[in-house]
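Form P-L/3: holo structure prediction, ligand fe (ii) ion.
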Amino acid sequence: MPLIQWNDSFSVGVRTIDSQHKKLVDTLNELHDAMLGGQARHVTGPILERLLQYTRDHFSAEEVMMASAAYPGLAEHKLLHLDLTRQVEGYIARFQHGEITLNLHLMHFLRDWLTQHILREDRNYAPALHARGLR
Ligand SMILES: [Fe+2]
Ligand SMILES: [Fe+2]
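OUTPUT (holo model):
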């Protein structure tokens, strides 16, 4: 069973953003499968790094869209992105140094991190983007 099952409640109603979110969900599910399958660090490490890279790319794309829609919550949203990125970077650094392994605790942190950010913060900017014709 996948860690996260995509459903319509995750949609922010903007196609490019939804597809980026789906890619993040797919990557997290891939990481979860690798963990359950007992894959070694040389398999899981690169998936984790890919997750971080997709996250950075996604956050900057989202910030550009929010800026172009003059979304008033942009500065606050950027801080949340920065905080989330630092948390994931911290986990990855600890993983790379062998201080932690990929476990359910980390998977659940990543799942909650992604789904709660989409469901709470990302949905808030949707009306501003829609008002600018972004769908
Ligand atoms: Fe997002
Ligand atoms: Fe966001």
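COMMENT: The mean pLDDT is 94.
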